[in-house]
Amino acid sequence: MTCRMLLAAALMAAPVAAQRAPAPEPTRLPPDVLSLACAPSLAFEAPPTPLRVTGSQNPSPRQELGPGDLITINAGTDNGIDVGQEYYTRRAVPIEKRRIGRDNPATIRTTGWIRIYAVDRQMSLATIVYPCDSIEVSDYLEPFALPTVPTPSPDRPMAQRGNYGRVVTGNDNRRSFGKGDYFVVDRGSDHGVTVGAQFVVYRDQQRPGNFLFELGEAVAVTVRPESSTLLITLSRDAFLAGDYVAIRK
User: Fold this and answer.
1) Distance between CA 212 and CA 177 in Å, rounded?
2) Which end of the chain, C or N, has fewer beta carbons within 10 A?
3) Looking at the structure, do residues 30 and 127 belong to the same domain, yes or no?
4) What is the per-residue pLDDT for 7?
């Protein structure tokens, strides 16, 4: 039975019988590539979500989905979807439970990526290639591209003082981070940040006449116009939301 026939059978069955996905295969990708693919980013407005997860082929409705599930997508061949295409599944998590905006940015949580398994004109089934977290109904899709892990320059110029950014957030609105964690700062390409740029992280101890305390270092792994995702490479203490960052430049 072809993939298209499987989808037709699944959609026409009454009641619909649960369909199981093929057994997940290992991605064989290096751990640093997998972790970077799952790294968070920041958005100051709600992302467009025309392609979304709408459910799964399970005998009872489920909100959370994982490897082994066949995921239903709200688009098919009429929307340019075809068997074998891969997509990230993502979720916007605002800092506060209200409309996303400049005063209430959202962490973009990558929940995993999927591969289209079977298609109809208006719907598709997909399998989970790799889960960063549980994939949920209403997660939105973006085209998958394998990330490239940046190699920081061996040069270590002085940190640029007087142009400090701030630590904003992390996955699931985390506010505390250690070595190997990803976090988002409010500096991006509009501020001269490039992928691979090195940062020093500081804390103001709120003591008059005192220097900023140097907490550690991080490297930019993804860059947007107004924000960047950094990976912690050295930490002497936990980084906290609100701490300062300065680019080595």
Assistant:
1) 19
2) N
3) yes
4) 54
